[in-house]
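Dear V.,

Thank you for sending over the compound details. I've combined the ligand you provided, nicotinamide-adenine-dinucleotide, with the protein sequence from our construct and run the structure prediction for the complex. I'm sharing the raw inputs here so there's no ambiguity about protonation or stereochemistry in the SMILES, which I know was a concern on your side last time.
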Amino acid sequence: MSENVRLGFIGCNYRGSGMLSLLSEMEDVDIVAVCDRIESNANKAAAIVTEKGKAEPAKYLDHHELLSRDDIQGVIACTAWLDHVNLAVDCMRAGKYIGFEVGGACSVEECWRLVYAYEETGVPCMMLENCCYGRNELALLNMIKQGLFGELIHMQGAYGHDLSHSLVSRIQERHYRTFHYHHRNCENYPTHELGPICNMLNINRGNRLLTLTSTASKARGLNARAAKMFGEDSMPAQRHWNQGDVITTVIKCAHGETITINLDTTLPRPYSRELCVQGTEGIYMEDGNRIYIEGISQTPHEWDCFAPYLEKYEHPLWKWFKNTGVKGGHGGMDYLVQRAFIESIRDNRETPIDVYDTATWMSITALSEDSIALGSMPVAIPDFTNGLWIDRRPDPKCRYSLDAVHNDLF
Ligand SMILES: NC(=O)c1ccc[n+]([C@@H]2O[C@H](COP(=O)([O-])OP(=O)(O)OC[C@H]3O[C@@H](n4cnc5c(N)ncnc54)[C@H](O)[C@@H]3O)[C@@H](O)[C@H]2O)c1
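Below is the predicted structure of the protein with nicotinamide-adenine-dinucleotide bound, written out as structure tokens.
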């Protein structure tokens, strides 16, 4: 059998195609089998692999058949939000590492199912949160570890992305995201900003998320978009959407830090994750690409441009990545998150984003739904580590570690 990491790939539509294409270019990876419950997507997946000059993978419509193969070490799943947990649990029980795409949970119970499956099997489970490997996010992590911000006090982030056109135009095809906006009202996509923030705050490693409150604005954006696209009297313009346009969630941490995250996906706006890091020594704001660090910034009370700080405090992983050639979607972070997963399988170790991180981040969706339904009442965030966070051993040391920066590995 090949020395390469042998993967199965499940879910090949919009996101899956891009992720599979990138994986198929990796010399040390064999895509042994692909699976999609829609046959044309399974065929498309196999074609993506062969077009990159790799051997044709086996094709399946049922993931249980893929998981019954004993030549697969790990699985990457680019499925819809409601499919992730069942698939992940099946993968862990089949003894295969699982890396699955981002998305929130529908219930806290789902998150516990992930944790229990991991604790029963010992098989790693990783959310493939690509933004944890963003260039700015990693430079900031590096700066925080070097103490530039002092003690962290408050963090902000957002998923600010106008999806209204896509949501309204995909009603007829019954797209999963559209359904969530119709039926639910919650912080449905927290992890792009919350993942990096949790890494910066050592969440599940000496700190934890304690409580949250969520508040939803009224919902008008999708009706307004549909009226522009199809007319005031059209079905999408008349539809009742439960999902508020802007959801604001405030999280309190065990060591007193506060985090606010905003979901802002149905009103006209440019894209931003609106990251803000604030500590006793200074503040960074993504919007405006600016920073102020007391004693380092040129003029008291005036912003500096972040660009020179980025150069100076570049994370070693990004220095290496720039030297070897940045590749892959979303500015390179898709490649880095895939490598973080693949190299964990190769080295037979825990993944840098583990099951406790995955469960914690996903739970925010279900908990925000409860808080909004209860009139913005505070709700408790479970400790998915069951106390492990209090005295946690460091994560296995690797280039992709998110609990520490290992300059000596580069
Ligand atoms: N990280 C990022 O930057 C990023 C960007 C876009 C999308 N995403 C995420 O990627 C995921 C997929 O998004 P999408 O828009 O491609 O979804 P999609 O619905 O278009 O595609 C999902 C595919 O998975 C297949 N599938 C679902 N469950 C299956 C199962 N049990 N067995 C076999 N096939 C199954 C479906 O048939 C479909 O082809 C979502 O979680 C989304 O949030 C992440």
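A first observation: The longest strand covers residues 152-160.

Warm regards,
I. M.
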